[in-house]
Amino acid sequence: MRAISVVIPACNAAATIAATLASLRSEAEIIGEILLVDDASTDSTATIAREAAAQLSLPLRVLPANCHDAGGARNVALTEAVHPWVYLIDADDLHLRGGLRALLRKAREQPEADMIVGAYRRRVNGQDRQIKVPNGYRAACLANASAYVKGDIRSVAVGSVLASRTLIGETRFPVGLAYDEDTLFWARLMSKASLAMVSQPVMVYEVSPMRSDDRFALNPVRRFLDWRRQLRTLTDCNIPMSALKAREGLVALKIARVHYARGDLDTAARFLWPRPRRSGAQKLGAACATGSSSRRGGVCRRRRSSCRALCRRQPTRYRREALFGRRVEPAVGQWLIYGIRVEPTCCKNPDCRPADRLARTLYRQMVRPKTGHKARPTMRRLAMSAMPSPVSGG
User: For the range 344-351, what are the long-range contacts, defined as Cβ-Cβ under 8 Å and sequence gap of 24 or more?
Assistant: First the structure.
C-alpha cells in the first residue's frame, strides 16, 4: 500500500541527492510520491534527481521554488502532499533500510497515534556517532511540547518522524529563520499530537559542526530577534511562556558558545548577559541612597557592600531568572537579550580572565540549578572542560 508522501527540500544538492534517493529504494512499495523541492539550485540537482529516480523506479515529482529557505521549501511540498502520512528528510541525509516500514507498522499497531518518532544515528563530518533513541515523552500533548521546547526531552531529527497529514493540516514551518525552524514546527505538532515511539534507527542524520555554527555566527542579533519573534507565536498552542523563555536562554547560550570558541568574547558576553541602562556603580549608589533593593540591576539589599555583589553574590533566584528571561531594559544602541549575567569589570583578581569568568558563570547557571545548591566538585570541572578553547585572546 502506497501511503506515504516523502518531502525533500534541496538547494544545490547535486552531490548528495542521488544517495538520498537510493536510500529510499527499499521502501518503494509504501511510498506514494517523493516531492523534491528544487529551491533555486544553481547546479544540476533536479536533473540528477530525475535520472536517479528513473533508475530506482521511484515516484519522483520535482517542484521548482524560489524560497531560498528550507522551511519555505518544505511548506511548498506540504501543500502538494496527498497521501495519509508525510515523511520529511533532508537532501544530504540517508534513510536506513526498513525504517519507514517500522514507523508505519507502529502507526498501524497504535491507530490513535498520529505522530511516530523513531531513533536516528548522528554522523558528524562523515564519522558515525551515537544512536539517539527517543525518550521522555508522555501521554499529555501539551506536556510533550513544553518539555521539547525546554530541551528536557531528546530532540527529533528531520527524517526520524512520520506524521499524519491530518495532524499537519495547515501547520507550516516558519520562514526566514536561520536556525531552529524545525523545533518550532515539531513543537506545534506535539501540542496536539498523540505520540508513539520506535527504538529502531530509521535514518542517518548528517551533521557539519562548522556549517551549523556558521548559522549562529552571521548577523547574530538580527537572526536571534527574528527567531525569538517566531518562538513567541507558540503561545497560540498554549505552550507556557516559561518554556519559551527557557528556550531563549538555551539558544542564547549556544550563540555565546560559538562566538567564544571563535575568539569573539565580547559578542559571547553580550549574548550571555543583558546590559542594564545604568552602570553597576550607579545602580548600587541609587540603591544605597534610597535604602531599597533592585533585582533588575542584580543588587540585593543585604549584598550591596561592593560592586562585586552584581556577579559574585547574586541571590540564587535572580541567577535563575537572569537565564530564563527576566526583563532588563537595554541602553541606547544595545539590545535586549535573555541570558546569563556576567559583569566583566567587577572582579579585581588580575588572574581571573574573562574566559574563566565566563566558564564559571556557565557552571553556576547551567549545572548548579539542576544539581542543587551544593554541586559536586566534578560537576564544575565538567562544565569548565565543556567550554571550547578560544581561538585567540581571553
Answer: 344/269, 345/280, 345/307, 346/280, 346/307, 346/308, 346/310, 346/311, 346/312, 347/308, 347/311, 347/312, 348/308
